[in-house]
Specification:
- With 421 residues, the chain is an alpha/beta fold.
- It has 4 domains: 10-104, Beta Barrel (OB fold (Dihydrolipoamide Acetyltransferase, E2P)), CATH 2.40.50; 109-263, Succinyl-CoA synthetase domains (Rossmann fold, 3-Layer(aba) Sandwich); 270-319; 376-416, no CATH class.
- The protein contains 11 helices and 13 strands.
- It is elongated and about 165 Å long.
Amino acid sequence: MGNERKVYSVAEINRKARMVLESAMGEVWVEGELSRVTVHSSGHWYFNLKDEQAVVSCAMFRNDNVRVLFNPKDGLKIQMLARPSLYEASGRYQLIASAMEEAGKGNLQKQFEKLKAKLAAEGLFDASRKKPLPVLPRRIGVVTSPTGAAIRDIINVLTRRFPHIGILLIPAKVQGAGAEQGIAKAIDYLNTRGDIDVMIVGRGGGSIEDLWCFNEEVVARAIARSDIPVISAVGHEIDFTIADFVADVRAPTPSAAAELAVRQKSDFESELSLYDRRLRQNLKTMAQDFRLRLNRASHSYVFREPTTLMLRYRQSIQGLEVRMAHLLQSGVQQAHQHVDELGMVMQHRMERKLEREKQSLQRLESQLRMLNPLAVLGRGYSLTRKPDGSVVRSAESVGVGETITTQLADGKLVSNVVEKE
């Protein structure tokens, strides 16, 4: 037969096709509309990406989709970084996504991250600068659109929780050109009034473009310099803006912001009732205790026989006086005796000291006598000096006719030298 036929299994063909497909293109950015989005229990996302002319199956695994800042939903236009691949088990061509952005939001996201990093470095997000919310605000300021659903939700929640609470709305644009300036001015104005205890700043949900004014630096700075605690309430629970990070408290929705601003009036009434009962019970217990102590005191020995008690105290004081006088006299006598004893000891020590010094002096005197050169004269020696007082140690030092003086033990001899041998 001729050349043998090379036969592949289906799995081999699919594997080769996957390898060729993955190596040929690598990762590319693709734009389209999401459809048939499925979030698996494993955390992986499976969906289709389509445009007017075609559709492709896609997957985004959990390790990658945790970095996506929005929830995928059908009809949403997105851009994603993906690599073409082939699922070998079914031979289905698909795209494996590693990054995803809402279409047209790439530049906005970069601006968001840049400003967020800048303000974080300045400490505007630090927990240490967050102001606590008041326990019971007198008046609540609200910065939002006067026609949106947010203000209706806020008013409904506040009046339901605490009827007749003060609410001051400062109307402001919450989307579109110039909205950020109006929001910042409204925040600054509330800080000049002096009658606002807490403020809510926000709006309802929307696209990233709709919420963008709350990502502007001018709004962040206004919130940061506010002396009044600020609750941010921008969009829905999944939406995060720069204002949320700078605010003292972030609420997931405007309604939740109203719930954070004030507690239920019934809660305060219950607590006041509890404190009233505790106060009454404590006062009753204190009154009973004082009454019992007064009864005990009225039956005590002090009140029944005060004269006898006074006499007893007087006798006790007199006894203490006698005892003190005795102790004082005894102490003086002991002090005199101690001084006498010290005098005797000192005299004895001085006598012993003088005796030792006398003996030492006598020994020194004896040694001095032994060392005295004149002492040897008593043993028959003599000392001869020249007229100038110098000692004659040899005959050569004396000349004929010179006068010399000889010192003996009992006197002196003066001689005239007539001859030398």
